[in-house]
Queue: 4 jobs
Job 1
Amino acid sequence: MLSLANAFSDEELEDWENRNARLIPEVRAAGYTLEVKIDGAAVNLTYEKGHFVLGATRGNGTIGEVITANLRTVTDLPLTLKGDDVPALMEVRGEVYLPWVGFRRLNERREREGETPFANPRNAAAGALRQLDPTITRARRLRLFAFSIEVLEGSLPITSHSKMLAALERWGFVVEPHHRRVDSLAEARDAVPAYEAMLRKLPFQADGMVLKVDAIPLHEELGVVGGRDPRWAIARKFAPEVAVTQLRAIRINVGRTGALNPWAELEPVEVGGVTVSAATLHNEELIAQKDIRVGDWVEVVRAGEVIPQLVAPLREKRTGKEVPFVMPDRCPACDTPVERPADEAMRFCPNVSCPARVLEGIVHFASREAMDIRGLGYERVRQLLADGLIDDVADLYALSAQQLQAMEGFAATSAAQLVAAIAASRSQPLSLLLFGLGIRHVGKTVAQLLARHLGSMDALAAASQQDLASVPGVGPTIAEAVAHFFAEPRNQDLIGRLREAGVTFEEAQRIVTGGPLAGRTYVLTGTLPTLSRSEASKRIEAAGGRVAGSVSKKTSGVVAGADAGGKLDKARELGIEILDEAALLRLIGDAT
Ligand code: IVH
């Protein structure tokens, strides 16, 4: 897979066309396609007779990794193509990316759970593609834009790049919509400022625009430079937005998991049209590495909407009054000595009653993604804690409108509304309650897997670490964290009080009536050739069947893949039907 040469100015674009025209004068009249350069992970998708058969990363351009199962989780990727002019064998190239919303959500979660946030959506997307477990890839909700075709067998009677994009769309791919054909380089240059402005507003990270010679027959004639960069395309890059300001202080935010997150309080400065007064500093190693000192003049960049980053201190501007930063040994919120696990770059406050952790935990519980208690944000939770009306999330359910009304900032209506919102949260499903409880490593997806597979809070609390680890998509680390949570007397007490408060402890099972697998229960074991565990579970459930974690006399069939172990033996022992993936798909009547 080829790469792209860069041009940082309009003059460099002129030079590029002049060099090409010396080789082939016709390029000047061939027109160009202008596209957005998507900053994600390049992928190569093989389609045989219109079916997606193999997906790979770009790797070093020659050798990439096979990531077919993970790519199948990308919703924009068509598994079967539409149309009767699809070549018999072809490769489609494209870019897998993570939109800003997903990137922000992912990083917020990572910070909440004490993990290091990703520096940019590209790293997050590339990381998701390399996951061993496709359920993790799916949870990241990656997207895909296709941008070119390489026909290997059969033919495609298309002679321009712009028509190739149209064919991709016709067959079912998503093509980045801001592409256009222009007749000349002058027209392309005129379009540059508008592209630069537009790029900053896109819902995903873009790192430039791409100019491509529109006439495909000229591509081969122009050839490739150094085996890497085709002469027929070039990326026009833009300088990132940078500003210089002064670092007022380094502050610490204590997260829900107790992670101490340092951040920079800045003298407000405008970067790319937005006033920035804070920037993340990630962790103490980064501060030490960059030798960032309080009082320093610092460079701040903002690429698109990403959280502003502090690039580097300007050492030449130092006066000697700057103060090196020392990470505190005690939690700034509760003064408990902090801990630093050997394998982590973060320090943690170990005190589960730390007011900062409690505050963050309750706000998370009430958040839209969890119990969805409207009107219960930081300010109100802070107030309720300070007034001694609540100590934890279970106390929320005992609040009365009278109590709230007596508090500052509440009127009769707002008090009644909050009480109603809290009451309504009682019927949120178990998966959201579990997510809201903030158990380490239990994000939304894992909470859903656990709730779906175990069905109730009681079953979860009673499950052994082994039972938990056998839930498809749940690994040993998660199982350990969940078992640990339920073993803690403090948490048992909390769960007991939530039960008394009438909070839903069940997950409504999705009931599919009819369907080829109605009334049947299957157990999955081993690695299936193309489907991930959760994908196979979903297919079985969609066909009316149920998926169980262990084999019993009630099991209708065991779907076994490579390296199947004890469950397969048990199935043989009990004389239960054993199927492979193909047999399962035949039963479901869906081979895609
Ligand atoms: S064309 C000429 N078009 O940028 C063949 N690439 O820096 C190479 N990229 O590896 C690619 N958006 O992953 C092309 N509209 C676009 C692109 C694009 C993003 C990526 C691609 C490539 C990298 C090169």
Note: The pocket of 2-(butylsulfanyl)adenosine is lined by residues 2-4, 35, 37-38, 42, 58, 95, 147, 210, 230, 233, 235 (CB under 6 Å).
Job 2
Amino acid sequence: MRVLITGAAGFLGSHLCDRFIAEGHTVVGMDNLITGNMDNIAHLYGHERFSFVKHNVSQYIYVAGPLDAVLHFASPASPNDYLEHPIPTLKVGSLGTHNTLGLAKQKGARFLLASTSEVYGDPKVNPQPESYWGHVNPIGPRGVYDEAKRFAEAITMAYHRYHGLDTRIVRIFNTYGPRMRLNDGRAVPNFIYQALTDQPITVYGRGTQTRAYQYYSDLIEGIYRLLLSDETMPVNIGNPDMEITVMELAEIIVRLSGSRSEITCIEPTDDRIVDDPQVRRPDITRARTILGWEPRVPVEEGLARTIDFFRQRL
Ligand code: UDP
């Protein structure tokens, strides 16, 4: 296959590039680098099956030659990033998805949308099956990401139903691993950075909110299987066995990194924890049944590898 991956210089986009190259495909990577980092794909420079185009996909996209698949992964994805770039976040989810869909239609390519567990908002149902419609505040600070991704799903389904485009939607739950930015503001990189530099660990609120964490390699496997499957309805990919509180996450990271950091509970005064989901955990029955997929990497093993990566970066 010859595939376009948008957001190619990001955490997940760059790992996807690696997977497609390793499987023998040809990859065109695209990124505007507002949150992506060329270091993530530097090892692919000069590879005969890899090329990179610096471009903002919210503008018209031109790609020469045939494409078999378009994977749309471009978007700020950490709450800090989308609070800092609210309009580009709305644009890449709406205009960027429209442009990548239009490109896929013109090339006769399969399309895969990177959606998110944020479409469920602050859920009233736990775990969340794909059939749950969500509980989202459209006008809150997180609305710029949540509603952009909900619109992205809606327009993807419209292209599927109206134009007959061959589409896939993955709803990605919290994912961590090497190549996350040290300062991206999410709990895993924040806590690891704080632990490795012996600074206080900043747990927001009382730390009772939960997330279910998956290691990036499990996610990439799920996405690869989904693209090759026939499933056109959204599929959750996440690790349901790893639902832990933010306080527990902080404790595990302090222990695994051998840190002297103290765990502190703070109340951010900015928008960071407005509408913060109180629970989150995927129901992965669909992924298990349709893709034969389930997560394999235990959280302590994945976190230990991620801590090693951060240590090297520091
Ligand atoms: N969080 C925290 N301290 C931090 C960063 C995040 O307590 O320094 C909390 C945040 O309020 C949320 C959880 O950790 O409840 C996960 O946040 P993250 O930004 O990693 O991702 P989200 O799942 O909210 O997109």
Note: The chain has a mean pLDDT of 97.
Job 3
Amino acid sequence: MLSATEKELIVQIWEKMLPVAEDIGSEALLRMFTTFPKTKTYFAHLDISPSSEHLRSHGKKIVQALAEGAKNISTLTTTLAPLSRFHAYQLRIHPTNFRLLNHCLLVTLACNMGENFTAVAHAAVDKFLSAFSAVLSEKFR
Ligand code: HNI
């Protein structure tokens, strides 16, 4: 579980990412599509080419959702309930895919935060993304 220090760090990191949400989110998605091409099947209805409007706007939504979740870590299950139902029932996203995006989000943060992406930040973000994804994928059957 996240310590109080880790929770504070998570909020700071995602607040810092908000002004560049499109860049961070789209880079993580592009990494996911390139490294794990099967994930593209869920986005067949969108133009996910590098720097496309769809890719950038979707990437922004992901970072904004994470930043919002970071501020409400103790109530993720309730705040994310609509998004969880959407991913499980409408989109039918298999839970394994969340680990793939989480990995790409970590790599993207590491590339963009440089020395500020310390081992402590790495561990805190990894725990947060795991908790976030567990809620998004828990309703999948
Ligand atoms: Ni996800 C839509 C956030 C993981 C495929 N996703 C969203 C939306 C948000 C979001 C926010 C927009 C909802 C809306 O418009 O009401 N997704 C997140 C977050 C994570 C995540 C925060 C994990 C950290 N999504 C995934 C994964 C996949 C995925 C792992 C598939 C590999 N998401 C989608 C698809 C959509 C989507 C597909 C719909 C896109 C569209 O606009 O049609």
Note: The two ends are 26 Å apart (CA to CA).
Job 4
Amino acid sequence: MNVLVLNSGSSSLKFQLIATDLGRITENKDERLCRGQVEQIGGEAIVTVHTRSGTRQKSTASLFDISRSLEYLVRWIASDESEIMEVRSPSDIHAVGHRVVHGGELFTESTVITDEVLKGIEECIDLAPLHNPNNIKGILASRQVFGPKLPQVAVFDTSFHHSIPEHAYLYALPYHLYKRHHIRRYGFHGTSHRYVADRYRALRAVTEEQTHIITLHLGNGCSATAIRGGRSVDTSMGMTPLEGLVMGTRSGDIDPAVVNLIARKEGLSTHEVDALLNNQSGLLGISGLTNDMRVLLQESRDQDHRRAQLAIEVFCYRARKYIGAFLACMGAADAIVFTGGIGENSPDIRARICNGLEWAGLRLDDSRNKRMVGLEGQISCDDSSLHAFVIPTDEELLIARDTVRCILSERSPRVEELRIQ
Ligand code: AMP
């Protein structure tokens, strides 16, 4: 089955075409046929595509909306330029899988998109006003380009965390705010945490019930998840992706009283403070330099840049603090799994986070850690009682696989049945 995976943003459309089916999923032999993105949709858009053989093609085109961008991409996929012999016309694309940011309390798993499901995604707009409307546009554009008969599946960033218990997802706010406005912790990056947990299971040959791990997705956005018996039991992100770890430009945890204080002292609206916490904080905010961890590591080494060093210290300390907290919540774990751009590629950051976790039984193997860059494998000593692994994430692959699984099982629950009273 050729599955087109779409991630639609406000002015961008990212895509991958993946050949997969139940056999390939079992054997981990899915094939990525091409990938790319359209940026600056709305005018002269920039189209970047990577063919199967790895060549990169960059061009510009007047693309006014997501529908036209998708049409353009599908035409390219079916052309000789894409080098994909299996797809000669749009009908050779058998399904579309969409990344949808917020499924709220309605969607606890990936689902085939029906009109009813679309209404449910619309209901969640309040919870993710910047993201869900764009995801809906992507779904409607696919209906327009491929026709209403092509199966489409929604895979939610939040749904892996639906198993988090009430005592972990409730904020200690007046309870009616939860009932009235659904204010609670939801968690994000669920597709990534679930993917690496699946791969960990395969690597270690353990069952879902035996999967007790803490996954650390460290990229531009960062989150930690406590996984017990294969299910998410707590995660660091909350109502929005702002809570938790220090990120590229997001603050992570702060005292909520600080919002008012900044507003008063700096003469900003709460809306502007929100933007400051999301876009000007984190690694960028502390260092005053950049949100790019590679540059921070370089500057802290070569130039002895004090604030770059400080940003890295705060980043690693917060990650270690969450590991400690999750170990306490879970009782024990078998491994910590690193993923995301930083987690997959920076032995230095992994070592700094793990340094000080010897009390928990973690002993990092320095040479394994140094070697494991963009690769999958163990980085702890064999006699560690708490292991550490690096597992590169692949959210698009999980979306493609869920799309296949949902279509074959025709999983499309009625939203009315899902609604939590
Ligand atoms: P992501 O959002 O998963 O693409 O991750 C982006 C982050 O990964 C950025 O902060 C990059 O600086 C960081 N990153 C990528 N490669 C490396 C590396 N070799 N060392 C440290 N950080 C890296």
Note: The domain at 206-390 is CATH 3.30.420.40 (Nucleotidyltransferase; domain 5).
